[in-house]
Specification:
about 450 residues, D-Maltodextrin-Binding Protein, domain 2, 2 domains, five-stranded mixed beta sheet, globular
């Protein structure tokens, strides 16, 4: 059974995670995590489920994802009958950071983008001891982006693995075996084969919006075990890994193998449905397109692991993501922890979030859990998707997600760097800059205008 239409605005914010970082201008200016005072460490509650008692206020984004969590919180209320949960839909991007800084009317817990957690660590509880029992069974990537100076500040929730989306019928007609796409060089060769068969195709999607193109870049870098900065906040754009990505983009552009279009806007959707685009290397949440937007090619798309950058390399990287935080000035932080522990690490909590529900009868299929016992390839939480020809996206995604390397905390200035790196990526895709120019110019401006001014 496939999922029903998705609330696009609520879904994009929830799945994209990093998406609205630019809207918040009050992040602490310290590298890498903005931490200036000793954080509070939260200890595990000693109360049993039957004796836990009190009231908590929990913030989430509005939209379908709020409804999913609201239903899952109903399961929590059954497990903890004496805990009252005030679940509120809030514009988190506009409100949470300022509320943390002011310390007034803070919630007991909140959904938040992974990208923002490091920048507000001083205003959050240190959850290291609470996460410890689950650490070995949680995605290394999710732990790393929630860690600042060895302390964990977010409860890891979703994992957004990158996948290679492709037109099964087109590849079959061109004699291309999807299983043969083991490296990005293989992908270029396959794109050439497709184009020889049908010259009107420009098979590979390249993103036209600077923000999403930079987010996509970080997925490709994460595949290679790197990111824009290291754990100490040192810029590492000038590296073999980033140069490899930019050189690959340049080659694809020169060979006229790309469609340069903005993510799921009409021009993009039209070129997908017309058969012009055949390959879309993107996050799991691209599954939104065939489920809701595509018409003539609905049911013809499939997902596979991303190609590797080097033979035997990782076959996925993370693109976006969110976790849960507990403010240091929360009134009942221990009870908030019980809720998030239940949703992320306990049954029936994570099944209530990802499994079939009134909002998504087939289950929530735009991300996967970051807790590995919940992400068992043989025990799917969401069902095969009709819009993908009945493909078992769960198995593909969790197996790809297991290969994602660890990363580093996302620097507070990441969204501001789009003015340099994201814009220069667009110039590269337009054939107006070389890889070396993108690296040197972007690195110089990020260092001078963002890092050195911190």
């Amino acid at each position: 059974m496939s999922t029903p239409p998705i609330d696009r605005r609520g879904f994009l914010k929830g799945a994209l995670g990093i998406g609205a970082l630019a809207a918040t201008g009050s992040l602490a200016a310290c590298a890498p995590g903005g931490q200036s005072t000793a954080p509070s460490k939260l200890a595990a509650p000693t109360a049993s489920a039957s004796s836990a008692k009190g009231e908590i206020t929990i913030w989430n984004r509005s939209g379908d994802l709020f409804k999913v969590f609201d239903a899952a919180i109903g399961k929590f209320r059954q497990a903890y009958p004496n805990v009252k949960v005030n679940h509120q839909a809030v514009d988190i991007d506009a409100k949470l950071a300022n509320t943390l800084i002011s310390g007034t009317d803070v919630p007991d817990g909140s959904f938040w983008d992974d990208a923002k957690i490091g920048g507000q660590a001083e205003h959050l509880f240190d959850l290291t001891d609470l996460i410890a029992p689950y650490k070995e069974q949680t995605s290394a990537y999710k732990l790393s982006v929630n860690t600042v100076e060895g302390k964990i500040y977010g409860v890891p929730w979703d994992l957004d693995p990158g996948l290679l989306w492709y037109r099964e019928d087109v590849l079959e007609g061109a004699g291309v075996d999807p299983a043969s796409l083991a490296t990005y060089d293989d992908l270029l060769n396959a794109a050439r084969t497709v184009k020889e068969k049908d010259p009107k195709t420009k098979p590979i999607h390249l993103e036209k919006t600077p923000f999403l193109s930079q987010l996509w870049l970080e997925m490709l870098a994460n595949q290679q075990g790197t990111s824009l900065t290291d754990a100490q906040g040192k810029l590492r754009l000038d590296s073999e890994e980033y140069r490899r990505i930019f050189t690959w983009i340049q080659g694809a552009v020169k060979d006229d193998l790309v469609t340069h279009a903005p993510y799921l806007e009409p021009a993009d959707v039209n070129s997908l449905d017309s058969g012009q685009q055949v390959f879309v290397p993107w996050a799991i949440w691209w599954s939104f397109a065939p489920q809701q937007l595509l018409k003539s090619t609905k049911g013809k798309w499939r997902a596979a692991p991303l190609p590797a950058w080097t033979p035997g390399g990782a076959r996925s990287g993370a693109m976006g993501g969110s976790s849960f935080v507990i403010p240091a000035k929360a009134k009942n932080p221990e009870l908030a922890w019980l809720l998030y522990e239940f949703l992320c690490f306990k049954e029936p909590g994570y099944t209530a979030v990802y499994g079939p529900n009134d909002i998504y009868p087939g289950g929530l299929s735009t991300s996967i859990p970051s807790y590995t016992p919940a992400a068992d390839p043989a025990k799917p939480l969401f069902q095969p998707i009709d819009a993908l020809g009945g493909q078992d996206l769960w198995k593909v995604a969790v197996e790809a997600g297991a290969t994602i390397p660890a990363a580093a905390p996302i620097p507070w200035w990441w969204a501001q760097s789009v003015d340099y790196l994201g814009n220069n990526m667009q110039r590269l895709m337009e054939g107006k800059m070389s890889p070396d120019q993108v690296i040197s110019e972007s690195a110089e401006k990020i260092q001078r205008n963002l890092i050195d001014r911190s």
